[in-house]
Every structure is written in C-alpha cells, then in structure tokens.
Amino acid sequence: MAFVLNFFTSNNFIPHGHCYLWQTDLVWLHILSDSIIAFSYYSIPLTLVYFVRKREDIPFKNIFILFGAFIISCGTTHLMEIWTLWHPYYWLSGTIKAITAIISFYAALTLIPLVPQALALPSPAQLEAANKALQAEITERKLVENELRQYKERLEELVEQRTTELAAANQQLQMEIIQRQKSQERMGELLQELKNTNQELNDFAHIVSHDLKAPLRGIGLLSEWLLNDYADKFDEEGKDLVNRIINRVNKLQNLIDDILEYSRVGRMREDKREVNLNDLVRDIIEILEPKPNIQIEINNSLPIIYWEKTKIEQVFQNLLSNAIKFLDKPQGKIIVSCTEEDDYWKISVADNGIGIEERYFTKIFQIFQQLSTTQDSASTGIGLSIVKKIVEMYGGSIWVESKVDQGSTFFFTLKKTLQIPSVQAM
After folding, report:
1. Mean pLDDT value across residues 316-320
2. What tens digit of pLDDT does each residue of 164-187 get?
3. Is the pLDDT of residue 376 over 60?
C-alpha cells in the first residue's frame, strides 16, 4: 500500500511548473490550452454517445465506443498536464498515457479491417440518388395506389350495377319460368285435347265408314241382283248403266278404305322390327300378281331396315301398284333399286309407263289428286298421299322424275337411324 501511495505521490520529483520557471504567462498558456483540449476531448464522446443512441441502425458501434474511450483518455492526459504543474505525479501521468496508447493502438488495429466495409457504404451522393429514386418510386406507387383505388371504386360500381342487372335478369327469368310452366301446362292441355280430338276423329271415321259402307253394300248387292235376275229385261244400255253403278259403288268403297288408311297413318302404331326389304318386295309382287307382260326386277340388293313393317309395306305396295296400273307398253318393266348415302338409303321404283308431265310432279302427292281421266278408274287419288305422309313421318323425302311416254321414277329416302317424333304417336 505504501508502495502504491509512493508510486503515485512520489516526492522525488519537482512540479512541472518549475520547468516553466513559474512564469505566469507561460503557465496560464499551458493551463488554458490543456483545459480547452480536455474539455473538447470530453465533449466529443458525449456527442458520439448521443449520436449512437439516436441512430440505432448505425453500423460499427464498437468502433464508436473505442473512439470514445480513446478520446476520454486523451483528454485525461491533458488534465494530468495541468495537475503536474503543481504536483509531480509523473508515474500516474505516464500510466494514463500508457492506457491511452493501448486504447489508441487497439482502436487503430480495429479500424484497419473496417476500412473496406466503410468504403463499401454508399456515399452521400449515392444515398441522395437512391433517395430520389425511392421518392420517385413512392410517387409512382402513390399514383398506382390512386389508380387502384379508382379502379376499385369503378369495380364496386360495376359489381353493384351487374348485381342489379342480374337481379333484374333473375326476376325476368323467374317470370319466364312461370310463363313457361303455364305454357307447358297449356301445351299439356292442348295435347290432351288433341288426343281426345284424334280419338273422336278415329271413332267418327269408323262410324262414318260403317254407316257409309252399309248402304253402299246394299246398293251393290241390289245392283248385282238386278243384273242377274233381270238380265233378260235390260238392253245393253241398261246393263251398262247397272255396271256403272256397281263400279261407282266399288270406287266409293275403295275411297272410304283409303281415307281410313290415310287417317290411321301417324296414329296407329306398331312395334318396330328388322325388315328385309328384298323379301318384303317379293311378297308384295306376289300379292299384286302383275300381268305376264310386266316384268318386275330388284336391280341390286335392298337393305335390312328397322321399321314398322306395315308402313313400309304400304309404301312399296302403293308405288308398285301405281306403276303396274299405268303401264301401257306391250312389254312393261319395273325396276326397284337402292343406293347407300351417308346417313340414309335412297330407294327408287322406275317404270316405262305413260309418264307424268312436269307440272304435275307436286300435285300427284296431294290428297284426292289423280291424273287419270278414265271414268271407271279405280284410283282414288290417295295412294301417293299415304306414301308421302309415311315417308316424311319417318324423316325422309319423296319426289318423282318422269318424261311423258317414257316412264317415271319415284325416289324416296329412309334414314339409317330411325327416329319418329313423339307427337306422331297421337
């Protein structure tokens, strides 16, 4: 303890003021200079501490602390210079200088590796440029935000407008649904009325047929009895008149049958099945029994179709019977042929008969239309109408090509995939 006390308070030295010969001006010069330097040294660390506390993001905080310690120790050495003017504590002063040297040396060593990092820091000009760029970006972002806000407001307006439109459209749709439901109900009522009407027409047709056929049969029988029982009482003209009555009665009966058949087309239905048209046409030829001078050929193989057999029989029977009926050549020839198209079959019945003028190509398919002027002709003018109605009911079409005195060819198409509209079932 005595050694430490002697070390810091040694009386073996004289005060530093003796070196200045205690000249007042010189002593005060050193006092003032060291005081101002010490004061400045002590104020700098305070400024650094204030700066570091305000700037939490400042890099290299440790170097600021080292510099603060270095500057404080430097200021302390100047205070010791003043103190040693009167008190010879040179060991203490030297120790403080040694501490200052150590701190300064360590600060210098620490500062060297920080130089590249400090150089890498952006300069004020770079910071200013970056700040300007940031300000420009902020301005642009504000513009974008403003546009987005306007777009959002516009979008909200559009959504509100669209919502209103959708609400109106939904209301309109609800009204249309209600109207459609009413229409469907009305359609159901009309369909039921149509079914009832068709049934009434069917019953009426049968009643009329029965009521008309009964007296016609009576007229026919009476005419035949007159012709048989009183043949010797009639001259040739009387017999001819009675025969005309019988022919008219037969024609009326055929007409009634054809009208009934025409009314059944589309109402009377049967199960569909596979029909071999080759066999069907041969059977119809056998039933019709054409005269020996009439030759009927199947030019190429006819298809097997999925149809109502009775309906397709009516088509071929009417076309073949018409062809046979109007053949006026010594050697009559009828050719049935078929060609395959993409989704349908095209069938033709060609003859070398009397032919048809072009102006009648449409008329012959109308009901009660016939071109024959023979008074006793058994034709009722309904056969081709029945054929047209059946073919079109199944989605096909029918037409004729003909030249007078050269013959006629009737074409009709059959769909490969048969689909019949449900309304035809009534």
Report:
1. 92
2. 888 888 888 888 898 888 888 888
3. no
**Model pLDDT for residues 124-171, shown as the tens digit of each residue:** 777 788 888 888 889 888 888 888 888 888 888 888 888 888 888 888
Say yes or no to pLDDT of 29 above 80: yes
CATH for 270-425 (3.40.50.720, 3.30.565.10, 2.30.42.10, 3.30.43.10): 3.30.565.10
| CB-based contacts of 66, cutoff 8 Å, min separation 6 | 103, 106, 107, 110
The dihedral of CA 326, 331, 336, 341: what is its sign? Answer: negative
Q: Tokens 């209600």 sit at which residue? A: 178
Q: How far apart are CA 231 and CA 333, in angstroms?
A: 40
The whole-number pLDDT of residue 198 equals 62
CATH 3.30.565.10-classified regions of the chain: 270-425
3-state secondary structure the chain: CHHHHHHHCCCCCCCHHHHHCCCHHHHHHHHHHHHHHHHHHHHHHHHHHHHHHHCCCCCCHHHHHHHHHHHHHHHHHHHHHHHCCCCCCHHHHHHHHHHHHHHHHHHHHHHHHHHHHHHHCCCHHHHHHHHHHHHHHHHHHHHHHHHHHHHHHHHHHHHHHHHHHHHHHHHHHHHHHHHHHHHHHHHHHHHHHHHHHHHHHHHHHHHHHHHHHHHHHHHHHHHHHHHHHCHHHCCHHHHHHHHHHHHHHHHHHHHHHHHHHHHHCCCCCCCCEEEEHHHHHHHHHHHHCCCCCEEEEECCCCCEEEECHHHHHHHHHHHHHHHHHCCCCCCEEEEEEEEECCCEEEEEEEECCCCCCHHHCCHHHCCCCCCCCCCCCCCCCCHHHHHHHHHHHCCCCEEEEEECCCEEEEEEEEECCCCCCHHHHC
pTM higher than 0.85 for the full model? no
pLDDT at site 399: 94
- The closest alpha carbon to 290, from 320, 260, 255, 263, belongs to 320
What is the mean pLDDT of the segment spanning 369-374? 52
What's the average model confidence in pLDDT over 210-224? Answer: 64
Mean pLDDT, rounded, for 316-342: 91
